[in-house]
Design a protein that fits this description.
Number of helices: 7
Helix content: 25-40%
Number of strands: 7
Mean pLDDT: 76
Structural class: alpha+beta
Radius of gyration: 34 Å
Distance between the termini: 96 Å
């Protein structure tokens, strides 16, 4: 548009705009369109605080997008499993109830359905719950990880205050929830078996060597004694503590099926 035409036109006193969320099937055709939020700003009497979205508006926008996204995602997940795998007949609805899910971007609500089993007997039960193995917890794994990450680095009440300041959190959560999630994840990490990079039956054959003279010199210097230690060759064949440290083995050659190696002086 021409700049002179804009200068001569009447400028509106307020700025209105809408944020719309569109869903499609991947081919570009819009299947569902949802209006997420409407915002307005004054044009003539603006203040520095009116520039951009505020923190409260940003948190509300994120929570609204999360709400619509979760509902659409769960509906498509259930629709893909509504028909029976064997006969292809669509299962009938038995009952449904509203449930809540706590996420890192706020609490959302969704419909949790339960269907009647197919008459062909392929389900093996009287009712089928499609979300039984999909949503097993009342909160997402990302939210529990975020609670544990903050709870491990700062006090629980301070972590709760930071989350309330920056994220659209639920009013029912408190510092006890952060503590419970931190302890639960800590227990799961504690009981996790470490990943072994080699087979348990075939362990590597490694040797460890220590300079005994350097260790003795370091001990003497730490104690304030600056005397020179002379290394003398050993004439006896008895095993001492220093020789065992010098030629300590993590796994003996006998266990690995190899002939035993000879130590120095042996």
């Amino acid at each position: 548009m021409d700049r002179d035409a804009l200068s001569g036109a009447a400028v509106p006193s307020r700025l209105h705009f809408r944020i719309v969320l569109e869903f499609d099937n991947g081919d570009g055709s819009v299947v569902k369109r949802v209006e997420v939020m409407r915002l307005h700003r004054p044009v003539e009497y603006q203040t520095p605080g009116d520039v951009g979205l505020s923190l409260a508006e940003g948190k509300s926008l994120l929570n609204r997008v999360q709400q619509e996204f979760v509902v659409e995602q769960i509906e498509r997940f259930c629709a893909s499993r509504r028909s029976c795998v064997d006969c292809g007949v669509q299962r009938r609805l038995h009952d449904s109830h509203c449930s809540e899910l706590k996420t890192a971007l706020g609490k959302v609500f969704y419909c949790r359905e339960r269907w009647k089993a197919c008459n062909c007997g392929a389900d093996g039960s009287k009712y089928v719950s499609p979300l039984k193995d999909y949503l097993t917890e009342a909160s997402t794994g990302e939210l529990r990880w975020l609670h544990a990450e903050l709870g491990a680095t700062m006090p629980y009440r301070q972590a709760k205050a930071i989350m309330d300041l920056l994220l659209p959190t639920s009013d029912r959560d408190n510092h006890v929830t952060i503590r419970n999630h931190t302890v639960a994840i800590g227990k799961s990490i504690q009981h996790t078996q470490p990943v072994r990079r080699w087979c348990k039956t075939a362990k590597p054959n490694a040797e460890l060597g220590i300079d005994v003279g350097y260790v003795r010199r370091a001990r003497c210097n730490r104690k304030g004694q600056a005397r020179k230690i002379a290394q003398k060759p050993r004439t006896d064949h008895r095993r001492s503590r220093s020789s065992s440290l010098l030629w300590g083995k993590l796994v003996s050659n006998h266990e690995c099926g190899l002939p035993p190696c000879r130590e120095p002086g042996g």
